[in-house]
Specification:
By secondary structure, the protein is of the alpha/beta class. Helix content is 25%, strand content 30%. It has one domain: Rossmann fold, CATH 3.40.50.2020. The termini are close together.
Length: 183
């Protein structure tokens, strides 16, 4: 049986996104708007990156460039899973080389997804720099990876997961704690 508990409702999630966008705007929007770009990681990093772009565009009148990255084949557990991964289309409509990149994902837990994203992004070129934005930081990653922009930190037992849902997911948006228990 899966138990799901709402930790933070949509209004708090939106406030976190607004704050993250303000921090990114402060750090990157002072120069050429084409000198940085956001790349959202499938699945939930993509809608998060879109929302951050929306906020920055609303505040500045300029929309940052946006890419979408599938890291499925870069994961270190691809051969260990019981099924085949769902492969999504990577769309990066700009040259990565020399660009300041902000990778965007919903939850930073072990750091394995971000490690895979770093491998994947360098197959597209050599960015000037890469920063990381996450809505939720679980703390204690397995890899020495830390986010530069964090919506909030949530400390939960390892057997509990954090799930971020946006309006388009068909469920109520919010940040949830998910606990898998045997019935």
């Amino acid at each position: 049986m899966t138990l799901k508990k709402l930790l933070y409702p949509p209004v708090e999630m939106c406030a976190d996104i607004d704050r993250m966008a303000a921090e990114i705007q402060r750090d990157f929007c002072g120069g050429d708007p084409d000198s940085f770009a956001l790349i959202g990681l499938y699945k939930q990093g993509v809608p998060l990156a879109e929302r951050i772009c929306d906020v920055i565009e609303h505040r500045t009148g300029r929309r940052p460039r946006l890419g979408k990255l599938d890291i499925s084949m870069y994961r270190d557990d691809v051969g260990l899973r019981s099924g085949l991964p769902l492969i999504r289309e990577t769309v990066i409509p700009f040259d990565v080389t020399g660009t300041r990149i902000i990778l965007v994902d919903d939850v930073l837990s072990t750091g394995r997804t971000i490690r895979a994203a770093l491998d994947a992004i360098t197959d597209y070129g050599r960015p000037e720099l890469i920063r990381l934005a996450v809505l939720v930081d679980r703390g204690n990653p397995e890899y020495p990876i830390r986010a530069d922009y964090v919506g909030r930190q949530i400390l939960l037992p390892d057997e509990h997961k954090v799930s971020v849902l946006f309006d388009e997911d068909g469920d109520e948006a919010g940040i949830y704690e998910v606990n898998w228990k045997q019935a």
